[in-house]
UniProtKB/TrEMBL annotation:
Protein topology in the membrane: Multi-pass membrane protein
A biological-process GO annotation: phosphate ion transmembrane transport
Location in or out of the cell: Membrane
Annotated keywords: Membrane, Transmembrane, Transmembrane helix, Transport
GO MF, any single term: phosphate transmembrane transporter activity
Gene Ontology cellular component list: membrane
Main location: membrane
InterPro entries: Phos_transporter
Protein name per the record: Inorganic phosphate transporter
Lineage, top ranks: Bacteria, Pseudomonadati, Myxococcota, Myxococcia, Myxococcales
Signal peptide per UniProt: none
Length: 341
């Protein structure tokens, strides 16, 4: 019975990873599609490939943060296997519900923060505030602001440097060069997306396994967790999320290939660097900041600030909304258990 429950929860975690890739596909391909460097079908295949190969060099720093840096793993494990399964199931379902809602609304919210919010909300009924790791949550919350600002700064810097480098060339030649370079920048960002986002679910799967059937083993991330999570997110990316592509690639600002290159490179470098520090940042926030930064180099009016404002509100509400949904799922789960029992 316990083994069956664990397998189901691990499957739900991989489904979340698939939805994460589906939801965040726009982050990886919006600019390369909007600048018409690649067709949508080729773009998602390109992004999915680099999502997957991040498995072989991305590390597991973010996975360890998600597994032990948001909730007190030892306290949760001490509550028993049923508590571990209930908390993780509720966290995943809360995050999935928020992801699907924001996908339907066409808002590029953060899957990272949805999962963090789900973990927080599901833990509160079981362990209370004492079961939360305040320093880890504060770190994640601070990068809601910092990661888009860093992405914006790098996006602006790269755009200015690129423009200055080619200012004597004809627009046609510049466009041709940066169409090729955007293949590289898109690969960098897709790799960073896999590095950061696939690791979150590895941490969740590890909590499930080492909190239940492998209680006597030390917490660590196995190779099969790495491969399966990267495969799930790559498949999700391959199937794409076209509603959000429209918002990110067209509604926010208009990008030429040189702008797409600057935004993707700035966002990707930011995410890779922070992943090495074990900080589960939002790829959505980071690339949005980079796109806004690049757009702002053309003047304040080049960015559609009304769209940007809608996106920011989605950022603000993601953690508390996902937490609330996780609490509701936990309550419903416990009610069903009592009725069945």
């Amino acid at each position: 019975m316990l083994l069956t429950a664990v397998i189901i929860i691990v499957a739900v975690a991989l489904i979340f990873d698939f939805i994460n890739g589906f939801h965040d596909a726009a982050n990886s391909i919006a600019t390369v599609v909007s600048t018409r460097v690649l067709s949508p079908n080729l773009a998602v295949a390109w992004a999915a490939f680099f999502n997957f190969i991040a498995a072989f060099a991305g590390g597991v720093h973010v996975a360890n943060t998600m597994g032990k840096g948001i909730i007190n793993f030892e306290m949760l494990r001490a509550q028993g296997s049923s508590a571990v399964l209930a908390v993780i199931f509720s966290a995943l379902m809360g995050a999935i519900a928020w992801n699907l809602l924001t996908w339907w609304w066409g808002l590029p919210s953060s899957s990272s923060h949805a999962l963090a919010g789900g973990m927080i909300g599901a833990t509160l009924p079981v362990l209370g505030f004492g079961g939360l790791v305040g320093s880890g949550i504060a770190k994640i919350a601070s990068f809601i602001v910092l990661s888009p600002l860093i992405g914006m700064t790098l996006g602006i810097s790269l755009m200015v440097a690129s423009t200055w480098t080619v200012h004597r060339q004809t627009p046609l030649r510049v466009d041709a060069w940066f169409r090729r370079l955007q293949l590289v920048s898109s690969a960098i960002f897709s790799y960073s997306h896999g590095t950061n986002d696939a690791q979150k679910v590895m941490g969740i799967i590890a909590v499930v396994l080492f909190g239940t059937i492998w209680k006597d083993r030390p917490f660590h991330i196995d190779w099969w967790m790495i491969i399966s999570c990267h495969a799930a997110i790559a498949l999700g990316t391959f199937f794409g999320g076209w509603r959000i592509v429209r918002t990110m690639g067209h509604s926010l600002t208009k990008l030429a290939p040189i702008g797409g290159f600057s935004a993707e490179t700035g966002g990707g470098v930011t995410i890779i660097a922070l992943a090495e520090l074990g900080i589960p940042v939002s790829t959505t926030h980071t690339i949005t900041g980079a796109i806004v930064g690049v757009g702002s180099t053309k003047g304040w009016r080049a960015v559609k600030w009304g769209v940007a404002g809608r996106i920011i509100w989605a950022w603000v509400f993601t953690i508390p909304a996902a937490a609330l949904m996780a609490v509701l799922v936990y309550g419903l789960t416990q009610l069903v258990v009592k009725l069945v029992g």
